[in-house]
Amino acid sequence: MALIKRVPADLGIEFIGNRRLCLAFSALLLLVSVGSFFWQGLNYGVDFRGGVLIELKTKGAADVGDIRNRISNLGINGATIQSFGEADDVLINLPSAGDNTADAQPMIDRVKAALTDVADNYRRVEFVGPKVGNELREAGALATVLALLGIAAYIWFRFEWHFAAAALIALVHDIIATVGFFSMTQMEFNLSTLAAVLTIAGYSINDTVVVFDRVREDLRKYKKMPLPSLLNTAINQTLTRTVLTSSTTLLALIALYAFGGEVIRGFSSGLIYGVVIGTYSSIGIASPLLIYFGLRRTDISLPDAETAQP
């Protein structure tokens, strides 16, 4: 605590002067993310693509290659088998075989019969029909769009349109970059990772609002300071708070990633990446955009008491 108190309130780091470098980096990041999405897409989990998910515990260390061959010999195409957590845990994803559990049951029984001498017990067997998967994808996309619009509306009401537009662009940047992360790594994208994307949007806007609030306060306080210098001052004044908040959040997320198990590995990975990107966008994207949107002091509504001052 004593060390934190010694940190200067204004660190004097030149962020706005390097805004073109930040914007160029973000443009490259978005280009890679969008390119990866259209080139190889997302590795949808059973939640979104439909199919059967089987998690089993094997007798001893799992031989993924042997299990893959056994399922392939059944004539089941498109199955994916991977290690899951411990050495004796295996996750099997089977393609959809109809619109309900009854249609998929014969395939599930065949797989279990082929793995009789390998499986110790089956921890879960889940089925999602293709229609349900499509509906979940559409609902997830709609939830993301509505979240963005709701956040933009709040910022517009809370601040001015310049802030709302900058915040919305930064949020879209964070979401595209996070979805691109899942596309590039081919980590499974399911309902939990979608929840991580929406959580990142909320976390990012929290940082952005803190910076914007200080910007508006400084616009009222420093009547003659040039806008780039004022924005840089506002960012530096909130930087310690931003870094400390992000660091403590990352400590918890890293613990989840390390000890939370395979079930939430994708969720925690997405949040770790998103917190870093969200913190960066609040500083390097949202604030510099205010310059390009032509923010002026006359755009800020002032209380009557301040308006009356000379």
Automatic annotation (TrEMBL):
GO terms for cellular component: plasma membrane. InterPro entries: SecD/SecF_arch_bac, SecD/SecF_bac, SecD/SecF_CS, SecD_SecF_C, SecD_SecF_C_bact, SecF_bac. It is a multi-pass membrane protein. The chain crosses the membrane at residues 21-39, 139-157, 164-185, 191-212, 233-259, 271-293. It is found in: Cell membrane. Residues 113-294 form the Protein export membrane protein SecD/SecF C-terminal domain. GO terms for biological process: intracellular protein transmembrane transport; protein targeting; protein transport by the Sec complex. The keyword Transmembrane applies. The keyword Membrane applies. Keywords: Cell membrane, Membrane, Protein transport, Translocation, Transmembrane, Transmembrane helix, Transport. One of its GO terms (molecular function) is protein-transporting ATPase activity. It comes from the Bacteria. Belongs to the SecD/SecF family. SecF subfamily. Part of the Sec protein translocase complex. Interacts with the SecYEG preprotein conducting channel. SecDF uses the proton motive force (PMF) to complete protein translocation after the ATP-dependent function of SecA. Forms a complex with SecD. Part of the essential Sec protein translocation apparatus which comprises SecA, SecYEG and auxiliary proteins SecDF-YajC and YidC. This is Protein-export membrane protein SecF.
